[in-house]
Structures are given as C-alpha cells and as structure tokens.
Amino acid sequence: MSNTGGGHKASAEAIKAAFQETYGHKYEITIVDLWKEHDAPHRGTRDRRAGLAVHERRGFRATIRFTNPKLVHVPYLSAVSAFVSRHVSQALDSYNPDLVVSVHPLMQHIPIKVLRDRIKSGASKPINFATVVTDFTTCHNTWFCPGATRCFVPTEYCRDLAISNEMDPRQIIMHGALVCVCAVCSISNFKYTHYSWYRVWFSPRDNVMNQRSKSACSLHTGRVERSRTHPPPQQVVVICGRNQKLQERLRARPAGAGHPLLHVRGFVDNIHEWMGACDAIITKAGPGTIAEALIAGLPILLNGNVPCQEEGNIPYVVDNRVGAFETRPDRIAAIMDSWLLKGGRHWFEDMGKRAKALGRPEAVYRIVDDLAALTEE
Fold first, then answer.
1. pTM of this prediction?
2. Confidence tier at 349 by pLDDT (50, 70, 90)
3. What is the DSSP letter of 336?
4. C-alpha count within 13 angstroms, C-beta hemisphere, residue 192
5. What is the pLDDT of residues 327-346, one digit of tens each?
6. What's the CA gap between 79 and 97, in Å, rounded?
7. Cβ of 122: how many Cβ atoms within 10 Å?
8. How far is the C-alpha of 110 from the C-alpha of 374, rounded, in Å?
9. What is the DSSP code (8-state) at residue 108?
C-alpha cells in the first residue's frame, strides 16, 4: 500500500486484523508502504502528489483525468518501472512473500511486472498477486491490471470497470467494501449508549457525528454555529483528525444553555464506536467511512469529496436513498433539522433501515478467506 490518504492504510490494517482473528498466527502479515519505504529517489515527489489532492483540487482532477485512459497510464507506468523496479525487487527479496496484496491504485502494474520478470528469470518462485479495490464507485483505471491473479471489487460498477480494462470475469470477485474488523463486531451487533472512558453520556437518539474532511474543514465552524437551533437533547460529535487548530477553535466556543452539547475529538482509532453512539453522520464521500456508516445503519449527509476519486460515491448514497449531499452550512443544518425533528422521523428511520440493508459486514472475512486460499495455490 501507500499511505497517501484515501483509507489505503486502514484497508491494509483491516485485512491484517481479519487474518489474525480468523487464522491466528498461521499467517505473517506485513504492511509495507512500498513507495515510501523502498523508493527513496521518488519519495518526495509522491508525498507532494498526495498533498495535491487536498490543496490543488483542479490540478488533481486534471491529473486523474489525464492518466485514466489505458493508452496513457500503461506506457507511463512502464517508464516509471525502469527507475523503480530495482527497489521493488529488493523489497520482494527482503520480505520473501507467499502472496502480494495491493490496496492502492498505483500498486498493480509495476509490482506485477517486477514479479513476472523475477519469476521468468528464476529469481523468485511463482507468487500470486491480489488487488483489493478500496474505492466504491469512481475508480481510476490503474486499479485494474490483467496480470493480477484476483481482483476484489466492492460494487457492480467496479466489476464492470475491471472487465472494460480487459480483466477476465473469472479474476474478479465481489464481496463488498473493506471495513475495520472491530467496526464489524461493534457496529453491526448493537448500539452503544455511553463511553465510560470518555465520561461522555449519550441519550439513545438525536446524536450527530461530524467527521472532519480536509476538503471541507472550513465549513465546520459555520455548521456548528447553525446547529444551535437544534433543541435539546441533540448533541454533536466533531472528529477533527489531526487538525489541531480546528479543535482549539471549536473548544473555544460558548457552552451551556442555548448552545448544542458539543464533543470535540482529534484523531481517534475507535470511530466505529462513535458511530455506534450516533444517529447520523456528516462526512466527505470517503468509501471506507460510507461502508462503516452503512453497516451501522446511519443516514449519511455528505459534505464534500476528493475530485474524481470520490465523486461517484455521492450518487451511490443519494440514489440508494441512504443520505443526501450538501456543501452549504445553512442547508446542512436545515437537513439535519428535518431528519432529527419528529416531523421527519419516519423518513429518517427508513433511511437507517435501507443503509443497514446495503451494508456488508461480512465482506472483509470473505476477502481474507479467498486470500488465504491463494497462498495455497
């Protein structure tokens, strides 16, 4: 994988956790950031490209669209391979894997070419290669390489896209989207009502979680300001990630009568538990968060997206009637009012039921079982 955002690291950790839960110590799973750890000459360039998605939306959109056609990205990646194949080969020597699993769109063509060359030269035993697509709908074509042994996709849209990129339908398996194992265990079985370790008590309804997205962090202060119109007992949880300035700004807001009960948190590793305590979520259109929210049965209010990469997730949520999309803070507050107030309660509860039906909590375990079988082939 490559830890450039987009949930790739979380997906790798979900696979590792599912392997450990299902098979114990039978398999040794190593998570490797291939470009950062084994491609020193190009490390800085790729770090800057990762920041492009956040700070230069138009530039990122143009890059995605330009490189998406096969006639562009295949020769481009072949050229890049000439510079980085030695580092990839050294990584394979270091780890000596029985199976290689990619959870990043730029981790197919080059590693597969290096593996093929090593096997052909006798430098390596035959090794299967699997791709686990972490994007929900709008996928870059670099996800799909006919040289992969298996390609796991979350939706029919991704399956059709893989076939259009000359993958054999027999290579493609659709189980659903990857989510954290602890999210499956906690969210899908019951709903939390309190957290003793945070000393934060929630009433069993009308709690909203606002997960910060870098592309829309400027909206948060306005959104919380307008949330003051919510009568008790509504509460708002804002997960700010590593945005320290946003945390300080929100914590400095007035509290008490006439203001919403606001819980501000930084980076958390138990997002599934916060979801289990809430009744709705406001977030950008990230595939991992959407998948976890569906399993939790949470209506989803999307407030932003990464250009191209996450745009297709918006109609997926809206068309399946499990949420809405809005970027204006005043409209976001109005939508939450319509969802949480008694007049819209029936529609709100129906959204939650549809979300629950759309979630696939068993997907990560099915993917891991198939990956385990690949190690035996």
1. 0.81
2. confident
3. H
4. 23
5. 998 999 889 888 887 656 78
6. 25
7. 7
8. 20
9. S
